[in-house]
Specification:
alpha/beta; six-stranded mixed sheet; globular; 14 helices; four-stranded antiparallel sheet; about 450 residues; Rossmann fold; binds iron/sulfur cluster; 17 strands
């Protein structure tokens, strides 16, 4: 690994654990008999269902209407009949209003399906509006609606689009696969985003543990004078928005600021590829790429899965469990969310289904902080995790605020390196929730 590769300050080196799937081809998952489509798959206001029990729906038909600006419509991932509209378990742990659709197996498209004109003939506003109507959100991240990211606040200006191909979470390999198998889609999506923002400078950041993806993407971009592939040091959390901006452009986003404050908009390579697909086919975001993996799964795979497919169906298509799992995580091991049932559906943000054995799932008993400072060394935001955690354990939210807990990106690097195995991340999440509640009051 070259010592001169682009990167950021701090960070950690968790084991990569990508061997099980990194060289496996993309598999198109079988479509289930029934899909469960939650009306909340993005940050912002949940959608309002616009179908009812008994209705026939087409593949890609709008079934949830966006509510407000920070919201995107939701579409059916099958054709068939609406069985119910009712609260169902969501991967975020809550019960969320969902549309349950019985698949008729026909994948019938709406008769009025419209293929958009070529993006270069559209104004930036028209492109952004299509992106909203396609239901696009940041894939693999915080599911921020893409059209909101592409609407630059007054007084700010952007000159660069950065695509995140870092895929720094251990175990997850679907973006690597996407870049190797569909490099032209990623480039096309990036060009559409650049057109929507009126910028002339595109970069694609890829960690150097994906040499093939770097090579393939570089070749795909060789005729694009304004697009550059930037190899990055393999370090966690290289794919976090602010860290990626620093690594690819050398710019810093100020504390509490937005990427636009550094003149940049960041999107995931998966989002870019979905934008390209939607503009080519006229079809909205109804299927996603994910990696189903972990030592408790028989045949880990990279898969293209319809939204609303229950986790258990995906796991079954990977040969089921090798052993009774000790922990199931939606996402990667560092930032993913533990699940207590496999009946939850795949949603727009599901980048991974990770199944740990009972031994891997066992958490070590925390001991007292020995003030070694390792957590401070690795924090990419330059916070003081042990101090914030100490105040959070005393419910002293004002001190947590003064120590900038709100800037914590919840990457988990501090908890990973802590020799005392302190549950740092969970205390920060509690502090942030408490401060958000206080703010609302
Ligand atoms: S790494 Fe753990 S033990 Fe070391 S200072 Fe931070 S919290 Fe304390
Ligand atoms: S304090 Fe937050 S941002 Fe810093 S290392 Fe810990 S989890 Fe990551």
């Amino acid at each position: 690994m070259s010592p001169n590769l682009a990167t950021f300050r701090g960070g950690s080196h968790p084991p990569q654990s990508k061997e099980a799937t990194k060289d496996k081809p993309l598999v198109i998952a079988e479509v289930p008999n029934e899909v469960i489509i939650p009306m909340s798959m993005h940050i912002g206001a949940p959608c309002k269902p616009v179908v009812k029990r008994g209705d026939h729906v087409y593949l890609g038909q709008k079934i949830g209407e966006a509510q407000g600006f920070v919201s995107v419509p939701i579409h059916s991932s099958v054709s068939g009949k609406v069985k119910a509209v009712e609260p169902r378990q969501h991967p975020n742990g809550e019960l969320v209003e969902s549309v349950i659709i019985e698949n008729d197996g026909k994948d019938e498209l709406p008769p009025d399906l419209e293929i958009p004109p070529h993006y270069e003939t559209l104004t930036p506003e028209e492109v952004v509006n299509y992106i909203k109507e396609f239901g696009l959100v940041g894939i693999g991240g915080a599911t921020f609606p893409t059209h909101v990211k592409l609407t630059i606040p007054e007084g700010k200006s952007v000159d660069t689009v950065v695509l995140n191909g870092a895929e720094c979470e251990p175990y997850i390999t679907c973006d690597d696969r996407l870049m190797k198998d569909y490099p032209d889609k990623v480039i096309e999506g990036l060009k559409i985003i650049m057109h929507a923002l009126g910028v002339n400078n595109g970069k694609i950041g890829i960690e150097d543990n994906k040499p093939e993806a770097i090579e393939i993407m570089t070749k795909a971009a060789e005729n694009e004078s304004n697009i550059e592939v930037v190899p990055l040091k393999t370090k966690y959390p290289q794919g976090a928005e602010k860290q990626l901006i620093t690594a690819t452009t050398g710019r810093e986003v100020p504390s509490g600021g937005l990427p636009a404050d550094a003149g940049v908009v960041v999107n995931n390579v998966g989002t870019a590829a979905q934008i390209a697909t939607s503009f080519q086919t006229g079809q909205p975001f109804y299927e996603t790429l994910l990696t189903c993996t972990g030592e408790a799964v028989n045949n880990p795979q990279n898969m293209l899965v319809r939204l609303g497919t229950p986790f258990q169906e995906v796991i079954d298509q990977c040969g089921g469990f090798k052993v009774e799992p000790g922990k199931i995580i939606s996402g990667g091991p560092m930032m993913g969310v533990a699940q207590f049932t496999t009946e939850v559906p795949v949603i727009k943000s599901t980048s991974g289904i990770l199944c740990f054995t009972p031994e891997q799932a066992q958490l070590p008993e925390p001991t007292d902080c020995i003030k070694c400072g390792k957590c401070t060394e690795v924090c990419p935001i330059r916070l003081q995790p042990y101090q914030i955690s100490a105040y959070a354990l005393q419910d002293d939210w004002d001190e947590c605020d003064a120590l900038h807990v709100k800037d914590c990106i919840e990457c988990g690097s501090c908890a990973f390196v802590c020799p005392a195995k302190r549950p740092l991340l969970s205390t920060f999440r509690t502090a942030k929730r408490a401060l958000a509640q206080k703010g609302r009051k």
